Amino acid sequence: MRIDDQLHIDTPExxxxxxxxxxxxxxxxxYGIDLAIRGLALALVAIPLMLFGRGGMGLYLVLLFFxxxxxxxxxxxLWQGRTPGKRMMGLAVVHGNGAPLGFNGSLVRNLLxxxxxFPMFYLTGFLVMLITRRAQRLGDLAADTLVIHxxxxxxxxxxxxxxxxxxxxxxxxxxxxxxxxxxxxMTVEAR
Length: 191
What we know:
two-stranded antiparallel ribbon, mainly alpha, 2 domains, 8 helices
């Protein structure tokens, strides 16, 4: 990770937040996962709806509309800024000041996905992400949101597991789970 990919925010309380900004590739992969989930859900619903003729087709189109527009909004608002794809990729959406994302912010950023889509394949959103300092697409700029790497923040170990972290073996990080192989600080808390 480059230093440019990090955003430092000083809070009024004097604490410094360091957010790791997500670039186009992890965001595209998360979108692809979400697209596959929505496609699978719609395909599973389409089969029984075909039995209802034109009424089933109308119901399917209403469901398609809601899945396209409100799937990301509801998940981001209810799952701390994460859709299933973002969760799998270790990403989250937050406000520009690092605060958790709310319903309004999620609604604004996702309604502007259409503008990011033009002229095709999210080209406008991709170019805007490359130009902006905080890797934001048009929807993110309008809602003042950021997509950040927000994976697991801590790891709990048993006392017997600590023997693997002593000496050279621990410094190499080979015994650490994926995502924890670059450890700056490790503290032991007595229970």
